[in-house]
Design a protein that fits this description.
Strand content: 5-15%
Order of helices and strands: HEHHEEHHHH
Distance between the termini: 48 Å
Number of helices: 7
Structural class: mainly alpha
Number of domains: 2
Strand order of the largest sheet: 1-3-2
Number of strands: 3
Shape: elongated
Largest sheet: 3 strands, antiparallel
Radius of gyration: 19 Å
C-alpha cells in the first residue's frame, strides 16, 4: 500500500492538515515512526496538482486543511476493495489495518479479495522446475501465501468480536522538542 493511498483514505474521513494526516496514516497502518512527515506534505502537493485533493481552508491556528475531490473519493472507493498480492508484506498488512480502521469501510470485501489473491490458484502446488532456486522461490510463495491466509483468519476473528473503526482524530500530533527545564 502506498503512502498516497493511505493519505487519500484518511482524507475520506474529512478535511485534515498535513501533520494530522501523517499521524493518522502511521497509527492506522501500525507504522509509527516509519513515514517521514515531509513525504506526506510532498504527496499532498502532488495529489493537489493531480486533482485528487483540494485546499479546504485553515485550522483556527493557521494550518492548511486538505480535502478529497470527487476524483479523490473515487480513487479511495476503488482502493478499499482492491487487493495487491504483489505488494510487500508491510504494505499488505497496512492496507488491511487502515481499511479496518475506517468507519463503514468494506473490510470484509478487502479480506475476500486478498484471500482470492493469496488462494490456491495463485500458489504453485509443486516445484515447477528441477532448478533449486526456482523451487525455493515456489516454496517462498507457498509459505508467504499460507501466512497471509492465516493472518487474514486472525483479522476476521478479531473484527467479528468488536468494531475497530474510528473517526478522524482531533488530538493534535506533537511537534518539535520539549522545552528544556532550567535549573
Amino acid at each position: 500500500m502506498s503512502v498516497r493511498s493511505g493519505i487519500l483514505a484518511v482524507l475520506s474521513l474529512g478535511p485534515a492538515y498535513g501533520s494530522q494526516v501523517h499521524g493518522e496514516v502511521e497509527t492506522r497502518m501500525h507504522r509509527v515512526g516509519s513515514i517521514n512527515v515531509g513525504q506526506i506534505y510532498s504527496t499532498l502537493d502532488r495529489l493537489q496538482s493531480q486533482g485528487f485533493v483540494i485546499s479546504k481552508g485553515m485550522t483556527g491556528d493557521g494550518l492548511p486543511l486538505y480535502a478529497l475531490t470527487a476524483r479523490g473519493r473515487e480513487e479511495v472507493e476503488a482502493w478499499l476493495t482492491t487487493a495487491d498480492a504483489g505488494s510487500s508484506w508491510s504494505d499488505f498488512v497496512g492496507h488491511v489495518l487502515l481499511v479496518a480502521s475506517l468507519p463503514g469501510a468494506p473490510v470484509d470485501d478487502l479480506v475476500r479479495a486478498y484471500r482470492a489473491a493469496f488462494g490456491e490458484e495463485a500458489v504453485p502446488t509443486a516445484d515447477s522446475s528441477d532448478e533449486p532456486l526456482a523451487a525455493l522461490g515456489d516454496q517462498a510463495t507457498r509459505v508467504l501465501s499460507s501466512s497471509a491466509l492465516a493472518w487474514l483468519d486472525d483479522v476476521q476473528r478479531v473484527l467479528s468480536t468488536s468494531d475497530h473503526a474510528r473517526p478522524l482524530g482531533s488530538m493534535r500530533p506533537r511537534r518539535g522538542r520539549r522545552p528544556r527545564q532550567s535549573s
